[in-house]
Amino acid sequence: MLTGCTPWPEELQRRYREAGYWEDITLWQMFEQSATKTPDRIALVFEDQRITYRELERQANRLALKFSEIGLKNRDRVVFQLANSPELIYAFYGLTKIGVIPVMALPAHRFTEISHFAGHAGAVGYLIPNQIKDFDYRELAGEITVAVPSVQHIIVAGQANEGQHSLTDWLAEPKVPGDEYRGDQGDPEDVALMLLSGGTTALSKLIPRTHNDFVYNCRQSSVVSSIDAKTVMLTLLPMSHNYNLGSPGILTALASGGCVVIASSINTEHVFSLIEKEQVSLILGAVPLVTKWLTSDIPEQHNLSSIKIIMNGGAKLAPELRQRIQTKFGCVFQESFGMGEGLLNLTRLNDEDEVILHSSGRPMSPGDEIKIVDENGNEVADGEKGELTCRGPYTIQGYYYAPESSANAFSPDGFYHTGDLVCRRNGYLYVEGRIKDLINRGGEKVSIDEVENHILADDRVENVSIVAMPDAQYGEKACAFVKLKAGQKLTREELTSFLLDRGIAKFKLPERLEIVESFPLSPAGKILRRELRRIIEETIKAEQESEQAKQRVSQL
């Protein structure tokens, strides 16, 4: 395995192979099986392009050759920041075929993040779009090559600057017989790609995922979500994110012989026109998108009878909203709770409504080992809250070149401490929030998720995020940031009355309400609670300083 990574112990490797979890094939070979079986089936739809498996394979092979010709080789790392497009998929497969390791950055990342990823990974290449809206990634690439001298190759989807390579020009070259890569390929036991840790509190750590573990990740998630050759998957969020890449994601759909429809916009009218036109059966959604759809009348203007599953990932969706999805769209809702480090939990399509609406699913693999522990590391009884820890055939054993972080996050026997506060009932996990997301109000612990779920039941509310705000007497109190539906109004007194009518304990009531037009989001679409905490802390500080100034004036 690549230096700087922690392999699974030999005993676990043997166990995973004997159980059939590890196939000892690469991600490229997994795709190649589909391309060989159904070469003429449509693999990708993007705008006016309809791309077969044969064409996808041909373009990926071409790029594998081009990457090799400019000097990229097995185990090299490249920062991979392409936007959603067929080129992203061609390039990803082209890199993994020759054993080059993409570090999966997101389009929203900028100099601070990219320079960190490139420097930490020792990257030799950087793949970018040319420009999105008014941001020119080619200029960013120039800054990166100065800051991180190891980065020698800039590869651009679109027009390239001098000294950079154009992915688009490579793909447009006439095909020449024998024009494909025939050299060394990736090793199933080695690192296939690097994902990014959550990164909502600090710069992301690099998560090394091997071919064996990520192939299994794709295979097993397809089983649990019934993804097969008939599946038409709509992808809306960044495809370099774990959820949209392989959990279940585009690699899973392509490994199953299905079709991936890539939306060029998340505009609601565009999304639902696309669903109707392409007969989409599976939608990979997220909280911000789902809440927008549920308050729009646009879906009713389209024939959406093809939809079988709407999945939510990235952050937990409230039970109230899950029910509304099933009612509004006449489909099955599926909750996905996972992490780049590995473990993936999903509700099952035939689960009872109580489980589908309230749980965060259960581990997708029989090989997943779960322990829920208290602050002393002791396992708690079912139904009691504790930290989720896990180990399994697709959960890593440590971060890339991060011994201190790995020692803090992984136990000596290889269990990953997720930082998620959960309880387990009948094998299903119920996420109560992050360990650090509890509000400690003078010793009383308040679960943010619990209160948010109550607030989302208010018909005036589109979305909510609760954070701790400083308080001199109690240490912390709850502040609710609320986005209202169009035309609605809400006061704190009205919110308090609504929550008391639902039987909530008084100490759990938010003691401040901030109405917002939008939420600060991470590149992966998660609400940045740390940014909301900063906002309310600065607001309170300014109010206190203003009050102190008034008092000084009154004493003159």
Q: Any overview of this molecule?
A:
The chain has 556 residues and is of the alpha/beta class. It has three domains: 23-207, Rossmann fold (3-Layer(aba) Sandwich); 265-435, 3-Layer(aba) Sandwich (Rossmann fold); 438-555, GMP Synthetase, Chain A, domain 3, CATH 3.30.300. Helix content is 35%, strand content 24%. The chain is built from 18 helices and 27 strands. The protein has a nine-stranded mixed sheet with strand order 2-1-13-12-14-15-16-17-18, with helices on both faces. It has a five-stranded parallel sheet with strand order 4-3-5-8-9, with helices on both faces. Strand 6 and strand 7 form a beta hairpin. Helix 3 (53-69) packs across helix 4 (86-97), helix 5 (111-121) packs across helix 6 (137-147) and helix 8 packs across helix 10 (249-255). The chain is globular. The mean pLDDT is 93.
Straight-line N-to-C gap? 73 Å
Q: Count of DSSP E strands?
A: 27
- List the uncertain runs: none
Which descriptor suits the 3D outline?
globular
> CATH first level of the largest domain: which class?
Alpha Beta
- The CATH level-2 architecture of the largest domain is identified as 3-Layer(aba) Sandwich
Strand numbers in spatial order across the main sheet: 2-1-13-12-14-15-16-17-18
- Rg over CA atoms, rounded to whole Å, is 24 Å
Share in helix: 25-40%
Question: What is CATH's topology name of the largest domain?
Answer: Rossmann fold
Strand fraction equals 15-25%
Put simply, the count of helices is 18
Count of the domains: 3
Largest sheet: 9 strands, mixed
Structural class: alpha/beta
Q: What is the mean predicted local confidence, pLDDT?
A: 93
